[in-house]
Amino acid sequence: MIRLRTIDEQRELVESFTRPAETLLPLARLRDGASPDGANWTRLAELGWLGISLGEGQGGIGLGPVEEALAAETLGRCLISPCFLATVIAARVAEAQGQTELARQLGTGSCRAALGVGRSSSPDVYAADAEDCAVVVLIAPDSIGVSSIEAASVHDAVHWSVPVHSIVAPKVLSKTGDDGTIAFARLLGAATLAGIASRSCELGVDYAKVREQFGQPIGGFQAVKHHCANMAIAAYAARELVNYAAMALEDEDPEAATLAAAAINVAARAARHNAALCVQIHGGIGFSAEADPHHFVKRAHVLEAAYSGIGAIRNVLVSQGLR
Amino acid sequence: MREVNGDRWLDLFRIEARDWLRANKPNHIAPLEGPESRHYVLDWQRRQYEGGWAGLTWPREYGGRSLSVAEQIVWFEEYARAGAPSTHNASFVGLNHAGPTLIACGTDEQKAFHLPKILSGEAIWCQGFSEPGSGSDLASLRTKGRIEGDELIVDGQKIWSSYADIADFQELLVRTDPDSKRHAGISWVICPMNLPGITVRPIRTMAGPSKFCEVFYDHVRLPLKDAVVGGLNNGWKTAMATLGFERGTASLALQIKLIEQVDVLARDCGDAMLAPRIADLRADAAALKAMSYSFALAAAASGTPGPEGSLIRLFFAELSRRVSEAAVDLYGIGSSELAGDHGWAYDYLEAYSETIAGGTAEIQRNIIGERVLGLPRGKA
Amino acid sequence: MDFELNEDQIAILHGLDQMLAGLQIEPPRHGETLVYGAAVDSELASSGFLDVGREQNFSTLESALIAERLARLPVTVEASSSAIIGPLFPPDEVERPLALAQGSPLVPARFLPQARSLLVDLGDDLLHVSVDPARVEPVDSLFAYPYGRLTRLEGLMTRSLGRGALAPFRRRWRMALAAESAGLMRSAMDTVLEHVKTRHQFGRPLGSFQAIQHRLAMGSGTMNGTYWLAMRAAWTDSDSDCAVAATYAQDAIPTFTYDLHQFCGAMGLTLEFPLHYWTYRLKALLGELGGSSAQARAASALTWTRA
Asked: How many domains does chain B have?
């Protein structure tokens, strides 16, 4: 059992640390379809966001898993570029492998990482928002790899709220199978997905309060109200489990790895569920590219894919950590 | 006396709990109805009390141990692992509703009289809230409490009163202001179940043995001063406190038990098709643990459970159902677990009541939508 | 596609309805979970309705229509297996009532207390056991079918029907599951619709609340889906259609029964309210023949072969 405690102080710390997100990461920036935060990358580094996974000696500010998860959730709510997650994970991998220069570059923003999606029968990979990225991070069920990207090997592929590129056979720079690092990567992915679940719930609820049909706000209709309640439950469950798993990692609890795996399972399903209901509640406009709900749907899927998909996410838990 | 640090203390507490449970839990399964069930429940409660394991978080002055949520959780974890009798039995209302309500709203005399009896296994409580015409719409209740001098005369009918046939006391909601219609004018009163004028009729349910009862009140005379808890005509607020406990910490033992059951399923599961489904159940059980533990901690700190209790309660109820369904798929209906009273078949059908009792899932969603999310009530 | 019943089918069902009306069937008394419809059983046996599937001009579709209709009754009777699986075998060789089992002849099986035959899917063979009722141990169960089990086979006539008999047996078992589920769902739904029209809370009928309306609408879709897939399977009598129909039914049962019980509140949990007559049986069917996951696997294997 973890040491039972509240995380209010840590929450306050992260809130002030991430406050600039309100103005720096408005949802509206996603509408033109370009790299959402590429232009601002140096700014994100200055704010210290890219260094959250680094130790104090490496340019970080000595945050622990709880703060890291809270930060990832807050920024995840704003649909920060997946490069953030990739960079922070790559920095941790690099630091753990003694590649201090790479870690420093990632933390200071001079090197940007893209979140990769492996392809089972090909050495090529997909990478989200990969333009101007020097490395791509591939998260497999039992390892995390950081590979270099040659500019010439980057091709346009599809657009899923962010551009998703195809990268031809990137070269592996480092790889780890360390359980702690994998748990960390899962925790941060879960936190990001929990942020998506929360924000899409809020978007749906806000819309239900404002949009009127049949002479009243649609949130007064029971079916819509119950959809909102279901989203609230899913978001709450995801958020609480992420925090609990983070506390377990902080406590070096023997259950920590299993909890991190559980967290990404619950958060991935919550994100999918809530993003879908958010579209539903918005009605026709929810389906259009002019409104924001579709970004949450797409981003949830990109993140899920980066963790090898919901099937792999489930498989991890099939026998792990049973007493 | 504690001279060890917090973590070490908790470890020792856990070992003590485990050993005691192993040595003292009943050897035979609880009879599910009738006078034998009463005896069994009271006996087990008394044993826990004598062993020092009853009312862990209750105030010391009423027989509890004034311990923290952490110890309570550890006890429930070991309790579930030991396979001790389900806490969803005739002791449930006393320990999880009436007791906490008295602690929050009772007079010193009421507390001093009733709380020790609940803890020590001398009294069983039941709940008299719902009526045939007032289920989800509890505020429409009609059982009357007419004041006559220093007595309260009760006339009416209650339904779904679990264990009323073996209970000593009932937490009863009556309408004491005859001119009131809904929430106003309701009082929360203590009703001794042996008074003349009370008739109890057990109802059989789909899970088999009956614990649900109908209760009829024909000119039942209660002592006005001793009976009313939380103030005359203030019963709705008092009842909301009670239901708040039900939606929050009362279920903690059950939630922990469910989490343990999911682990059992996971260990037994060799079926490749079921494994992903059970993986999801494990993940959801972990989420339930995270929510319940942090909620219990917050509720203990503030004294009252917050509105998130509804979220957790609903999550728990639906997870219970999915766990039971998975168990049926895993073990098969043709297994020896078909027999009704215990094992997965019973839990499977019991699970139906989880999303109905204490406020249906639909009502909970209304509450979540309106009170937690701030959505409008909606015109008819 | 023709969804209308033809004249023969209308006549058969009309005849069946008249027969049932004549029997004045009593549902179980308060507090009882199970009544075996012995009167219905003997009328069915002598009337030939269960043998319709054997007749020249009729097929499994007529059998399934009959099975679905009988499953709507508040009493339980072994009809689906007799009507749908029975015609696979000569009637004097495999006597009804039929009980079915998978894996072993010694597991609890539905209808074994009444059965004359137990058919067992052993995986590599179909076994037929001639049942002596004196040898059947009743199994106490909460699910509203009579269950029994054999503890030993010694002295009972057993016959191997061969590996080749397995595929048709499974096909027809799946068909029967789907048809029976459809009838059970129909009566359960009718009961709840009546309830939500008459039960009032908050000053209005339960059925006027949107969440309930929407979920009942979805339940109606489920019920109709189950019915039509069952009838299609009965019409084509194909392995894959039957597996699909059974998958759908078993998959749908949890949510369907859950929602119906939710709308009946605490009353619906009691044995005084009729919903359990049908939902108990639906829950029992849920786990049969390996449950929905086994059916789904079979459906995919039978429907799609590797290129």
From this structure: 3
- Give C164 to chain A, closest Cα distance, Å: 36
Chain B residue numbers touching C103 (CB-CB < 8 A): 334
pLDDT at B343: 60
CATH of the domain at B293: 1.20.140.10
Least confident of A11-15, A158-162, B176-180, B281-285: A158-162
pLDDT at A127: 95
Chains in contact with chain A (at least 3 beta-carbon pairs closer than 8 A): B, C
Instruction: Flag whether residue C267 sits within 8 Å of chain A, measured between CB atoms.
Output: no
Tell whether B311 lies on the interface with C, counting CB pairs under 8 A.
Answer: no
Q: Which of C83, C58, C59 is nearest to C70 (CA)?
A: C83
**Considering B211, B234, B257, which residue would you say is the last residue of a domain?**
B234
The region that residue B230 occupies, defined by phi over 0 for left and psi between -120 and 50 for alpha, beta otherwise, is: left
Residue B159's Cβ-count burial label (10 Å; 0-12, 13-18, 19+) is buried
| Cis preceding linkage at C133, omega within 30 | no
Reported confidence tier of residue B264, pLDDT bands at 50, 70, 90: confident
Q: Which chains touch C (3 or more CB pairs under 8 A)?
A: A, B
Alpha-carbon span C272 to C31, nearest angstrom: 6
For residue B100, tell me if it sits in a domain.
no
Q: Which residue of B has its CA nearest to A316?
A: B279
Q: In terms of residue numbers, what domain contains B131?
A: 125-234
Q: Which chain B residues contact residue C208 at CB under 8 A?
A: 380
Fold exhibited by the domain A180-319: Butyryl-CoA Dehydrogenase, subunit A; domain 3 (1.20.140)
Do A217 and B6 lie within an 8 Å CB cutoff? no
pLDDT digits (tens, 9 = 90+) for B154-175: 999 999 888 999 999 999 999 9
Given B234, B258, B280, the domain boundary residue is B234
Superfamily name with CATH number, domain C166-303 = Butyryl-CoA Dehydrogenase, subunit A, domain 3 (1.20.140.10)
Residue B339 has pLDDT above 50, yes or no: no
Please state, rounded to an integer, the average pLDDT across all residues of chain A. Answer: 93
Q: Does a structural domain hold residue B133?
A: yes
B271 in reach of chain C (CB within 8 A): yes
Q: Which two tokens stand for residue C255?
A: 């949510």
Q: Tell me how far apart the alpha carbons of residues C131 and C20 are, in angstroms, rounded to a whole number.
A: 28
Domain range annotation of chain C: 166-303
Cβ distance A237 to B372 less than 8 Å, yes or no, reads: no
- Whether residue B347 is contained in a domain is answered as yes
pLDDT value, residue A160: 86
- Best probe of the C interface among B206, B211, B348, B375, by most C CBs < 10 A, is B206
B354 is catalytic: no
CB–CB of A148/A135 below 8 Å? yes
CA nearest neighbour of A170 among A150, A187, A197, A188: A150
Which residues in chain A are contacts of B375 at CB distance < 8 A? 205, 208-209, 217, 219-220, 225, 228
pLDDT digits (tens, 9 = 90+) for C267-279: 887 777 889 889 9
Q: Which residue of C has its CA nearest to B327?
A: C287
DSSP at B207: T
- Please check whether residue A213 touches B, CB under 8 A: no
The domain spanning residue B154 has which CATH number?
2.40.110.10
Residue C193 forms contact with B (CB below 8 Å): no
Q: How far is A227 from chain C (nearest CA, A)?
A: 9
The minimum CA-CA distance between C296 and chain A, rounded to whole Å, is 17
| B253 and B365 both lie in a single domain | yes
**What is the DSSP secondary-structure string of C47-112?**
HTGGGGGGSTT--HHHHHHHHHHHHTSSSB-S-HIIIIIGGGS-TTTSPSSEEEEES-TTS-EETT
Point out the least confidently predicted range of A81-85, A157-161, B355-359, C157-161: B355-359
Q: Which of B33, B78, B171, B246 is catalytic?
A: B246
Contact flag B370-A225 (C-beta cutoff 8 Å): yes
